[in-house]
Design a protein that fits this description.
The chain is of the alpha/beta class. It is 47% helix and 16% strand. Among the domains are: 131 residues, Rossmann fold; 157 residues, Rossmann fold (3-Layer(aba) Sandwich), CATH 3.40.50.720. It contains 17 helices and twelve strands. The strands form two sheets. The protein has a seven-stranded mixed β-sheet with strand order 9-8-7-6-10-11-12, with helices on both faces. α12 links the parallel β10 and β11. The radius of gyration is 21 Å and the shape is globular. It binds NADPH dihydro-nicotinamide-adenine-dinucleotide phosphate. The site of NADPH dihydro-nicotinamide-adenine-dinucleotide phosphate has 23 residues, from α9. NADPH dihydro-nicotinamide-adenine-dinucleotide phosphate binds next to α9.
């Protein structure tokens, strides 16, 4: 492996851009956090690539190409009118049409959508597919809403969004609170308004243009990434005790794959609390509860003797485990929780969610030798299979589950290798966060340089 001889780093321009973002977007704390994390990694590039500063790449990359904010009025089952706020941040299209999910959660605001959109640019770059970065969503809370209410909300959301998206423009998908049912409603309304049957949304049902393995892709992909990473350290999932935070789409299929690799998943959570079973949790029971019944995790403990329920989802980190897969939401792990994870002798932490660890927590974990798999690399499996869904939609030819799964495995192993090799090239040891950030940033920045100042 050829290693770069590093000169004294002059990152004045990067600091200036960071100061500008702090000044301009001071209220957007999640977005600032995401920019700081990427800039912390790429400072090393400043002296070797003066062209990035000269052509304003740092300044341009933190500014979304377009932000759309809109009213979403809808009527509940009692006839009462509600108004939510909708967002779509089209962040960067240097590598392809905008691509990124939609999140429906009461805490959604511009900062959260911008942080997710910013992360998405680099995650999509790591997949090697031709996709730009975007994110969208609403502060609508789908919990405790009827199917009809969710349908009416999705239709109203799409009444505005449809004019900004399309198979060659912007292709949304699901995220927190946007499951296969919501995607189907969004697709139905898009089809009606655009008078076209196209792959403008991914994560669709397999009977109407969706890809096999898309539902499983982020969770499976996380475990494929972890498997390659662990193998490099003469480790594996077999007989390991695993904790998974969250119990939604990513968490469920991370559970399925970890079990198939011979691990025991002892605890999972939702935003209220967690369940713990020394002998391990059962995938089919958990899947049925969460996907079919849309139930709370507490119910799992009520129905399984030997399984305990503990209120307060953050208490899950009191449990000792070999591997922790963070699959709930941003900022789950701060410095204090990182200390607990270290004290518990954890071997590895993998980020299935977006930005579940604060940067200080990542630094602590790495300093103490915990193997750390960063989100934008480790959770790229979902968007990678969305990219594969776009290919299938473009040719109207669906692929078998085996074909998609094999491509997903290859993409995840390639991403691991890219992050590892890039970290080694820049003398950063095994720092996969920095390796992934630098590799992805360079791919996007070089495309932006080539395309001129637009
Ligand atoms: P889901 O809505 O299916 O599940 C989210 C899970 O996280 C639920 O168990 C939920 O509990 C829990 N959760 C959500 N918000 C909080 C919170 N504030 N505190 C504690 N727990 C919370 O979402 P996904 O599984 O799709 O997404 C999970 C994470 O993975 C997100 O960060 C998302 O951005 C990321 N991701 C998802 C991809 C995908 O393909 N779906 C792709 C790449 C990343 P509750 O039900 O109580 O709210």
């Amino acid at each position: 492996m050829v290693k770069l001889q590093l000169a004294v780093v002059n990152n004045m321009e990067i600091d200036q851009v960071l100061n500008k973002v702090h000044k301009q977007d001071y209220q957007e704390k999640e977005f600032l956090q995401a920019v700081e994390e990427v800039f912390d990694s790429i400072k090393i590039l400043a002296d070797h690539h003066p062209e990035y500063a000269k052509k304003g790449i740092y300044e341009r990359i933190v500014e979304p190409e377009r932000m759309i904010i809109f009213r979403v009025p809808w009527v509940d089952d009692q006839g009462e009118v509600h108004v939510n706020r909708g967002y779509r941040v089209q962040f960067n299209s240097a590598l392809g049409p905008y691509k990124g999910g939609l999140r429906f959660h009461p805490n959604v605001n511009l900062s959260i959508i911008k942080f997710l959109g910013f992360e998405q640019i680099f995650k999509n770059a790591l997949t090697g597919l031709l996709m730009g970065g975007a994110k969208g969503g609403s502060d609508f809370d789908p919990k405790n809403k009827s199917a009809d209410e969710i349908m009416r909300f999705c239709q109203s959301f799409m009444n505005e969004l449809y004019r900004h998206i399309g198979p060659h423009t912007d292709i949304p998908a699901g995220d927190i609170g946007v499951d296969a049912r919501a995607i189907a409603y969004l697709f139905g309304q898009y089809k009606k308004l655009s008078a076209s049957y196209s792959g403008a949304i991914t994560g669709k049902g397999v009977d109407f243009g969706g890809s096999l393995i898309r539902k499983e892709a982020t969770g499976y992909g996380l475990c494929y990434f972890m498997k390659a990473y662990l193998a490099d350290h003469n480790e594996g999932f077999k007989d390991k005790k695993v904790i998974i935070t969250g119990s939604g789409n990513v968490a469920l299929y991370a559970m399925a794959k970890a079990l198939s690799f011979g691990a025991k998943v002892v605890a999972m959570s939702d935003s209220d609390g967690y369940v713990y079973a020394k002998e391990g949790l059962n995938f089919e029971d958990m899947r049925h509860l969460k996907e079919d019944l849309k139930g709370r995790i507490k119910t799992y403990a009520l129905e399984h003797p030997g399984c305990a329920y503990v209120a307060g989802f953050e208490n899950i980190f009191d449990i000792k485990a070999d591997i922790i897969l963070l699959c709930a939401t941003q900022n789950e792990v701060d410095e204090n929780i990182a200390r607990k994870i270290i004290a518990n002798g954890t071997l590895a932490v993998g980020e299935g969610a977006n930005m579940p660890c604060r940067l200080e927590a990542v630094k602590l974990l790495r300093e103490h030798g915990v193997l750390f798999a960063p989100a934008k690399a480790a959770n790229a499996g979902g968007v990678a299979v969305s990219g594969l869904e776009m290919s299938q939609n473009a040719t109207f030819v669906p692929w078998s589950a085996e074909t998609v799964d094999a491509k997903l495995q290859q993409i995840m192993v390639d991403i691991y290798q890219k992050a590892k090799d890039c970290a080694a090239y820049y003398n950063l040891g095994g720092n996969l966060l920095a390796g992934a950030n630098i590799y992805a940033f360079r791919r996007v920045a070089d495309a932006m340089l080539a395309q001129g100042i637009v």
